[in-house]
Each structure stands twice: as C-alpha cells, then as structure tokens.
C-alpha cells in the first residue's frame, strides 16, 4: 500500500514524489512512456544530450525555484539566442536593434523608433493576432517573422487567432538577443534525464505502465492518486475532446557543425518545419559529430503526444467543465500541464508542484 500513486514521471510528478517521499510518505510513480522525464526527457547520443521533445531551456526569476532545481543538477550557462532563417537569409531574434538594422539599416534606437512609427499600421482596437502585430511592427516584420511561422504552428491564419498568443514576444530597441528576460537561465550539464533521475532517486517507478490499463488496481494501491495526464481522458471524454497541436521530429546524426547555433526558427510558410535544433550547442559541445532535429508542426490525434493546448473559447469552456468535475473528485489531485490544460514553462511546473505539496502539508498539520 502507498500513500500516493502518481500518474506521470514528468517534471510535475517527479517534484511531487520527491517532496512527499522526503516528508515520509510512500510513493509509487507510473508512466506509460518507456522513460522518465515526460517532455523534458533528454537522451544521450554519442555524448550529446538530445532534447527528444523539443528545445528545453530552464529560466526563472524566482530564486527559490532556481535553488531548488540546482539541488538536483548542475546547470550550465546557456542563454537562448535563437536565429531566424527566412528565405535563406539569417536574422537576429527576438526582434531587436540588430534585426531592425538587418531589415531597415537603422543603427540607433532613435532611428529604429522613427522607422517603426512609419511602418506601424494604425488599428484602434486590434481584434486578432494579425492586427495586433501589424499595429506593433508593420507589414514587413509581420511577414518576415510571424505570419508563416504562426500559420505552420497553429494551422490557422493569424486573423483567426487571438492576439494573446504572441503578446509574450518582446520587441526591443536594444541589441539584447537573449530570448528570455529572467534572471536565471541554463540547462542541466548532464541533461534533464539526470535531473529527473535525481528527483526520483529511491522512489519506486514503473515505466511502460498506463494508468488506464488497470485504473481500479492503481486506485486501490493508495489513498490518494496524483494525476498528471490529460484531464478529458481521465473523465472518459464525457464533455468532448480538448484540442491540442502536436509535433513531429526528424533527427539525424551528422558530422561537424551544422548550423552554428542551438535553435533556428524557419519562418517562411514554404518550408514545412518550424525549427531546426542542433543539440550540442545547448551544452557548448565540440564533438566531431552532431545531432540535428527538424521540428514539424502536426495535427493531434490520440496516438500522438499532445504538445500545445488550443486555448480558444470553445476549448477553455470545455476545460472548465472538466475542472468543475475534478474539484469534486475525492482522493484525486490533478496537476501539471495536461491535467490543467495549460501551457506551462518548467519553472511554473516546479512552482505549482511545490505549492501543491505545501498546501497538503498545511492541511495535515
Ligand atoms: P509532461 O507531459 O512532461 O508529463 C506528464 C507525464 O504523464 C508524461 O510522461 C506522460 O507519459 C504521463 N502520462 C500521461 N497519461 C498517462 C497515463 N494514462 N498513464 C501513465 N502515464 C501517463 N519549458 C521551459 O521552461 N523552457 C523551454 O524551453 C520549454 N520548451 C518547450 C518546448 C516544447 C516543444 C514544448 C511543448 C514545451 C516546452 N516547455 C518548455 C514546457 C515543458 O515541456 C513543460 O513545462 C513540462 O514538460 C511539463 O511537465 P508535466 O509534468 O506537467 O508534463
């Protein structure tokens, strides 16, 4: 008998299991995949940590969360500076003074601001993503960086998408190319699987084990179930199926230095992939060989991995019904990106698992 059966050996499940084990509770972690780590999993290929489910860079401004993850792995000093390739030309990204120099030839913040004022389209109340971007940077930058990439990623025209999807994208009037603005940033030197392995040290983990293959059995094994899988699946899709976008990865082992940077975004709609990753650059690798991954957006079906929730009004309303049901589900705790139907960065997942543990401990006192 266990105190907690935790469905999912991803970041949420691993932090929760570590904290509860350290507090004296007996935990069992199960995962249907053949490995721990969920989407942060890295696999060593010829000494290179390959980010199997897309580029993962840890970033946070919360010192508590940074100190927490540093207890389980040493982080390198990687700073994410992706580049854009549009029709064979390379641009600095996110949009900054270097980008504006490359596109317009402007060299100072004053010139750049003047140019932006000229090219911005006046739209009083931008109603969708296209209008919002046009109102911020005008047609040329929109077509160079946003239009094709967004159409590939979401399989929808930017006119059909809400502005909030991209409001996170910084537009800078300085030469700063660091994609994130957080104080702390890096990647575990030994990969994320090493970090998750340390979190799960001494805890029973069963891989290749789907909760739904025998859910009555797993429910009986513990007083409390912690579920980090898809919430609609947990409730038998009774209100319908929540939509996701998926991804498909093609990976090759090559010789040398393929693109000179860890991440390149391909923003032209004619190119079918959205990103190319060269994994050794995430860890300043100087190996003779290299591992390169092409990332293609893909339609989600149940046999694929759900990557990005489609948080439009229809899906959010459906999620709220599931959330309501989850609130009155005794003995089950829901957590993580799939159970909450929300895009979360890793630091937010760590924060939410620690907050859940804190709330449970406070109740038990
Ligand atoms: P996660 O999906 O990792 O874990 C859930 C686990 O539950 C999975 O292992 C799954 O197999 C298991 N499971 C589900 N159903 C089950 C069942 N029925 N039975 C058994 N097991 C079951 N964040 C960041 O901070 N920096 C970054 O650079 C990136 N980059 C990035 C790129 C891409 C392409 C994506 C999609 C996401 C990111 N992220 C990110 C976000 C990051 O991936 C995310 O925060 C964490 O992986 C979420 O961890 P969870 O544990 O919630 O889910």
Automatic annotation (TrEMBL):
Q: Does the keyword ATP-binding apply?
A: no
The terms describing its cellular component in GO are: cytosol
Q: What Enzyme Commission number(s) does the record list for this chain?
A: 5.4.99.9
Q: Identify the residues that the record assigns to the UDP-galactopyranose mutase C-terminal domain, covering every copy.
A: 145-343
The superkingdom listed in its UniProt entry is Bacteria
Q: Keyword set for this entry?
A: FAD, Flavoprotein, Isomerase
Q: What cofactor does this one take?
A: FAD
Which Gene Ontology molecular function entries are recorded, alphabetically? flavin adenine dinucleotide binding; UDP-galactopyranose mutase activity
Classification via PANTHER family: UDP-GALACTOPYRANOSE MUTASE (PTHR21197:SF0)
Q: What is stated as this protein's family in its record?
A: Belongs to the UDP-galactopyranose/dTDP-fucopyranose mutase family.
Q: What is this protein called?
A: UDP-galactopyranose mutase
């Amino acid at each position: 008998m266990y105190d907690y059966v935790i469905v999912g050996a991803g970041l949420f499940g691993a932090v929760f299991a570590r904290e509860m084990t350290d507090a004296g509770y007996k935990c069992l972690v199960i995962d249907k995949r053949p490995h721990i780590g969920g989407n942060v999993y890295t696999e060593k290929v010829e000494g290179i940590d390959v980010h199997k489910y897309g580029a993962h860079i840890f970033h946070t401004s919360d010192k508590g969360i940074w100190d927490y993850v540093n207890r389980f792995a040493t982080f390198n000093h990687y700073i994410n500076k992706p580049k854009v390739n549009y029709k064979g030309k390379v641009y600095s990204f996110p949009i900054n003074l270097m980008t504006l120099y490359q596109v317009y030839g402007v060299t100072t913040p004053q010139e750049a601001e003047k140019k932006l004022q000229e090219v911005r389209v006046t739209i009083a109340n931008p109603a969708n993503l296209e209008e919002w971007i046009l109102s911020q940077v005008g047609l040329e930058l929109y077509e160079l960086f946003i239009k094709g990439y967004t159409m590939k990623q979401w399989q929808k025209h930017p006119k059909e998408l809400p502005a909030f999807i991209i409001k996170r994208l910084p537009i800078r009037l300085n030469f700063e190319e660091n994609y994130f603005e957080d104080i702390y940033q890096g990647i575990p030197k030994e990969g994320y699987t090493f970090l998750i392995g340390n979190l799960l040290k001494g805890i029973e983990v069963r891989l290749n084990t789907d909760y739904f293959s025998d859910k009555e059995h797993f429910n009986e094994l513990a007083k409390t179930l912690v579920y980090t899988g898809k919430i609609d699946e947990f409730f038998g899709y009774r209100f319908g199926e929540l939509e996701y976008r998926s991804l498909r990865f093609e990976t090759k082992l090559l010789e040398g230095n393929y693109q000179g940077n860890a991440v390149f975004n391909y923003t032209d709609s004619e190119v079918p992939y959205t990103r190319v990753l060269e994994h050794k650059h995430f860890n300043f690798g100087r190996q003779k060989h290299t591992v390169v991954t092409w990332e293609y957006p893909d339609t989600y079906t149940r046999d694929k991995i759900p990557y990005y929730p489609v948080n439009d009004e229809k899906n959010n309303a459906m999620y709220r019904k599931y959330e309501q049901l989850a609130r009155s589900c005794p003995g089950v705790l829901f957590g993580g990106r799939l159970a909450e139907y929300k895009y979360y960065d890793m630091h937010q997942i760590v924060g939410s698992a620690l907050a859940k543990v804190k709330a449970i401990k406070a109740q038990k006192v």
